Amino acid sequence: MAVRKAARHYATGLSRRARVLDVADGLFRESGFGSPSLREIAKAAGLSHPGLLRYFASKEELLDALLDRYEQAARAPGGPITGPPSLPGDGPAAEPEAASPVERPGPDRIVAAARRNSAVAGYPDLVTALGGEATRVDHPAHARMGRRYRELRAWTAEMLSTAVPAGELRAEADRVVAGWEGLQLLALYDPSGVDVAASLERYLHGLVSEPGANTAPAAPPRRTLDELVAGDAEEFDRRTGYASGRERRARILDAATTLFGARGFHALSMREVAKAVGISHSTLLYHFEGKDELLHAVLARQDYLTISLGAVAGDTGLPDRLSAVVEASRRVAYETPGLRELFSVLSGEAVAPGHPAHAYFEKHFAVSRRYFTTLFEHLAYRGELAPGRDPEQEAVWLLALCEGLQQQRLYDPEIDPPGLLATSIGRVLDASAPPGG
């Protein structure tokens, strides 16, 4: 009798624990990790706060359990021959001598893992959002995510060992993991327009196969680059009001940029921003009615500055515009501390549809993708795109790589975004094409 009673208590405990995880998963995906409190999670799960603490002593412990559950669901037979079982899509390690040809290292294994991850509902959402949020060193998941990415790069290097020279494995693994993470981020803002596994497969196919022939478009692209850049800069100018140039407003935006990057959106108060600027709370509210409006102004100003300062003269060579992307990556990585943290933290938080910056990042990535696509269309028309390259696909990969590399560097300072980007861009350009604009 006592045994049956204990078994019922155990089963009840497991059921309640699973319900807490289900509720927390939904809340995290809806509004981000930083927003819901343990009390809110307990209430939504039908438990008291002390009742929830019997199962999870902290929100960090709850998050760890949720990640463990997702990673267990993502594991499948035929995982890596070696490497930790916590990698996405991995199963128990097989003995090398017993591995079948299908199980041997190869780029196809990376694509298969990406497909398996995408098939686990909610897993890409949580891991991608957390990858952005946890870039702050004081985030409770920072160490775990940093370890996850190190293990993922090591496994990726092993999978690439059959296709990439040994001396290039580290750099190529950095690129593939960064591109993979960037694609998952873009797909959360444009699920119908970005196919993570397909884009990753196209890139990896280019590492092992001879390129196909290019057919230059018969007519020039409809959009011109300068009109596109000018139009986007004007739009962001209207949204931020930055052109007014008021000194106090600029100081507020400078302080908020640093603080949002260090603390995220949910943990920061308007009073803290006011204190950092040296003004009263009421003065801050005179310029920005609330934290949502301040966040939008901070983000829009960064886009305005990036687009307007990146607008180059019409007679500049098209490849030089890609060089400008590498230079912008260098500035973000090495000269503007806090800016990359701002975008990584907030773009991670904002994958939740209920986040106040979600619509902003949808627009941000759409504008960036349109610019890169237009640039590659012009290069293709002029015969300056390397064989087998599709402008739209290259635009998606370049944007994903830009985002992923900057994020990964926040976990591993040895990653060099501008150097890795420059190599990728060099492959996209046709080296046999004549120089010039």
Protein architecture, described:
This protein has 437 residues and is mostly helical. 65% of the residues lie in helices and 0% in strands. The protein has 19 helices and no strands. Helix 8 crosses helix 18. It is globular and about 65 Å long. The protein starts with a helix and ends in a 9-residue tail after the last helix. The N terminus and C terminus are likely disordered.
The main sheet comes to: none
Helix count from the secondary structure assignment: 19
**Strand segment tally:** 0
If you compute it from the alpha carbons, what radius of gyration comes out, rounded to the nearest whole angstrom?
Answer: 24 Å
Mean pLDDT: 78
Strand proportion, as a percent range, falls in: under 5%
Overall form:
globular
Helix content percent band: 55-70%
- SSE series: HHHHHHHHHHHHHHHHHHH
User: What are the low-pLDDT stretches, counting only 5+ consecutive residues below 50?
Assistant: 2-7, 77-102, 308-315, 433-437
Class derived from helix and strand content = mainly alpha
Distance between the termini: 85 Å
